[in-house]
Design brief:
Length: 134
Amino acid sequence: MLGVSFERLVARQAGVITLAQAVATGISAATVQRRVREGRWTRLHPRVYLVGGHRCTAEARIRAAWLWAGVDAVVTGPAAAHWHHMLDQAPAIIDLTVPGHTKPRSQPASASAAVTATALTSPNPPRLAAAASG
């Protein structure tokens, strides 16, 4: 994360940033909390914020859900289809699949930021076999 400016990171992430990312770019946790209190930033999920001046678009909602769940999570279902331009509208609820070993996180901040997270607990998840060339 170091070496990436706050502005570049926020632009790349549709206006969404985690508390850890903000701190890594030099913004203190106290400053983040103050900006939320003052209404300059919006808390979308625990430790995930929409920076002032950015709209809460479908991209921002999906990215915020993924950042909340952690980098090992995968966006699935209709939200993934929307992300890959297979659906015109993003769903109201963002579905995620997370590894079974993932530590549970506190739930999203509001019903408008609804997320479902399903743990993948199989020790040997199914994989697609590569076609044999021959």
